[in-house]
């Protein structure tokens, strides 16, 4: 188990379906992810029950962020586009609104980085963050990520496009 005593990163479990249902179907979050339409509970149930958690075969890993003392799930930490050959992986994070700006996201990123460095021997993590997503941009900067590029007109919201930044952190 990955923990710092305050939060724990744990495997995806069937009990997470309702939590994922709330988060994945929150339209206010769609602009910071890749969701285009709502998910059904059945789709999420199938996803959770067929999820194998092997980053080497699936090229992704989802970890749930929980409070260590109560076990309450407060977010997710996703590793995606895992590239073992080049020793890198994308990272994305969601912390539920009531738990934002309390340091939980930074703790989760640090625990995830330690896991990636020690268990996966990764050289770097990266992410793409929309220019208007200031909370995420600030989180990644605080965690030691550096801007390595700007993607112009990269993200579409309704009929407008906005830029995105690529952040990298060498482990």
How is this structure best described in words?
The chain is an alpha+beta fold and 171 residues long. It has a single domain, classed as Gcn5-related N-acetyltransferase (GNAT) (Aminopeptidase), CATH 3.40.630.30. 29% of the residues lie in helices and 37% in strands. The protein contains 6 helices and 8 strands, in the order ββααααβββαβαββ. Strands 1-2-3-4-5-6-8-7 form an 8-stranded mixed β-sheet. Helix 1 (17-24) crosses helix 3. The longest helix is centred in the middle third of the chain and has 15 residues, at 104-118. It starts with a strand and ends with a strand. The model has no long low-confidence stretch (mean pLDDT 92).
Largest sheet: 8 strands, mixed
Shape descriptor reads: globular
If you compute it from the alpha carbons, what radius of gyration comes out, rounded to the nearest whole angstrom?
A: 16 Å
Beta strand %: 35-45%
Q: Which homologous superfamily in CATH is the superfamily? A: Gcn5-related N-acetyltransferase (GNAT)
Number of strands: 8
Query: Which structural category do the helix and sheet elements fall into?
Result: alpha+beta
What name does CATH use for the topology?
Aminopeptidase
Structurally, the number of domains stands at 1
Please, how many helices? 6
What share of the residues lie within helices?
25-40%
């Amino acid at each position: 188990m990955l923990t710092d005593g305050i939060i724990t990163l744990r495997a995806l479990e069937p009990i997470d379906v309702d939590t994922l249902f709330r988060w994945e179907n929150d339209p206010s979050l769609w602009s910071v992810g890749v969701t285009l339409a709502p998910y059904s509970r059945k789709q999420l149930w199938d996803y959770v029950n067929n999820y194998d958690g092997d980053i080497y075969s699936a090229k992704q890993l989802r970890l749930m962020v929980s409070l260590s003392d109560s076990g309450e799930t407060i977010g997710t930490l996703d590793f995606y586009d895992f590239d073992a050959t080049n020793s890198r992986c994308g990272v994305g994070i969601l912390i539920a609104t009531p738990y934002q700006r309390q340091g939980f996201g930074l703790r989760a990123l640090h625990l995830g980085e330690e896991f990636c460095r020690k268990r996966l021997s990764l050289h770097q993590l990266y992410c793409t963050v929309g220019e208007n997503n200031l909370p995420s941009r600030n989180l990644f900067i605080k965690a030691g990520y550096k801007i390595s590029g700007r993607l112009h007109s990269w993200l579409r919201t309704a009929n407008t496009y906005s830029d995105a930044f690529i952040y990298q952190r060498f482990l």
